[in-house]
Amino acid sequence: MQEGVFKASGHLEGFSDWLVDCPGCKKRFRIDKLDKKGESEYQCPECKEIINTQKNKPRQFNLMLKTNMSATEDEPYYAYLRPETAQGIFVNFINVLNTTNKKLPLGIAQIGKAFRNEVTTGSFVFRMKEFEQMEIEYFVNPADAASYYESWVRERFDFYINKIGLRKENLRLRKHEKDELAHYAKACTDIEFMFPFPAKDGSASGGCWSELEGIANRGDFDLSEHARVSKKDLMYFDSEKKEKFTPYVIEPSAGVDRTFFAVLSDAYHEEEVQGKTRVVLKIKPELAPYRVAVLPLLKNRPELVELAKNIFYDIKKRIPAIYNDTGAIGKLYRRQDEVGTPFCVTVDVDSLGDGCVTVRERDSMRQERVAKEKVFDFIEKGN
Ligand code: ATP
Predict the structure, then answer these.
(1) Single pTM value for the model
(2) For residue 190, which atom of ligand 1 is closest to its CA?
(3) Does residue 118's CB lie within 6 angstroms of at least one atom of ligand 1?
């Protein structure tokens, strides 16, 4: 987006990290991520040297990536890759309001790429320069903002447990202190997940509570600033109460990549089965790449393969399914366990006679004979 948008939103001024250079290994770190060891003293996570911020002064670095949209170098026209999807929603707020005729509360949601010039990328997909965000800007009457904020925090916390299937003990809420609030925020609560990074004390077994999503009360900061800079009226008129005001905004802001990481980490299990390690991804069926795998027990029996394929083609019309006959049955089960397929359907010689197949459930490994016409209902409805 063009420079003016980020001038108004405060990102040109305020969207920056305080960075400090380690005098030992010369690497650069975000000061808010370092372990404090004393007054003005922090420990370098790489070489363990003490960084004294009186001697090694922290400097502010803007996180936005700048580009020149002009055809010529001498008449530059600067634009920035968006560091959050939110600003596109704010500058379109009036368009959406006028074209949809909605009343408040009004939510606009968007998913898409965001870009930040992060100093320390890594920890798998936890921190990248190019990542995928999902944001909702929920526009409300200022008088209702505090209660909507509280209810969005609860709603989003429940989402990760009930919809995504993360374990409750791996999730917590953390309220931001006044001095860590972003420049636009009146209040903010992070939903944190116990990510499988080494703990801060260096112990390999521990994990690390880190942000999965932030829910902020942005007040009327963004709409007011865009209105001030663009000189456009971005207020809302409540026709019932006959009052005009700038809406407040409650913003749940989540990362697709971090959610993906949390799901993998939470669902990954290693179990001992008959003296061997079984890797199984215990994800919710809705998130599994396949809901069911259809496997013929013997692939050199054409009538058995044909029956298995017919069952597969029939199920595939309704739910994501995979057919696989490239190994012995034990190996095929393990592969499906690893990608989290909730059910395997095995077609064997008996199936040719009695029309039944074996359905195996991923987590319990329990097997049941089910009539082939009933397989879909058994998998989807449990009967
Ligand atoms: P952090 O403190 O970890 O840098 P943040 O507070 O800057 O995160 P927000 O600005 O609240 O993050 O962004 C909303 C969400 O976008 C985060 O909760 C996270 O899921 C995701 N996100 C932010 N930065 C990155 C990144 N560099 N790589 C991957 N995901 C990110």
Answers:
(1) 0.89
(2) 18
(3) yes
**Residue-level pLDDT at 175:** 97
pLDDT over 90, % of the chain:
86
338, 288 contact by CB (below 8 A): no
The answer, yes or no, to whether any atom of ligand 1 lies below 6 A from the CB of 170, is no
253 lines ligand 1 (CB under 6 A): yes
Q: Whose CA is nearest to atom 20 of ligand 1?
A: 255
The Cα–Cα gap between 122 and 132 comes to 15
Check the CA dihedral 265-17-90-192 and report its sign. positive
* 254 Cα: distance to centroid of ligand 1 (angstroms): 8
85 lines ligand 1 (CB under 6 A): no
- Per-residue pLDDT band at 248 (split at 50, 70, 90): very high
In this model, does residue 382 exceed pLDDT 70?
no
Report the alpha-carbon distance of residue 29 to residue 49 in Å, rounded: 13
Q: Tens digits of per-residue pLDDT, 265-323?
A: 999 999 999 999 999 999 999 999 999 999 999 989 999 999 999 999 999 999 999 99
**pLDDT confidence band for 97 (50 / 70 / 90):** very high
pLDDT > 70: percent of the chain: 97
Q: Where are the beta strands (DSSP E) in 49-176?
A: 50-52, 59-62, 66-68, 78-80, 106-115, 130-140, 171-175
Instruction: Kindly state if the Cβ of 128 falls inside 6 Å of ligand 1.
Output: yes
The residue whose C-alpha atom lies closest to atom 2 belonging to ligand 1 is: 211
SS (H, E, C) 273-336: ECCEEEEEECCCHHHCCCCEEEEECCCCCHHHHHHHHHHHHHHHCCCCEEECCCCCHHHHHHHH
> How many whole angstroms from 181 Cα to the centroid of ligand 1?
14
Q: Which atom of ligand 1 is nearest to the CA of 191?
A: 18
Set out the domains of the chain in order of their start, with CATH numbers. 1-81 (no CATH), 82-267 (3.30.930.10), 274-380 (3.40.50.800)
- Please say if the pLDDT value at position 150 is more than 60: yes
Q: Give 12's pLDDT tier (boundaries 50, 70, 90).
A: very high
- Concatenated DSSP letters of 175-212: EPPGGG--TT-SEEEEEEEEESSPPTT--SS--EEEEE
Cβ 245 vs Cβ 141: under 8 Å: yes
Whole-number Å distance, alpha carbon 255 to ligand 1 midpoint, is 7
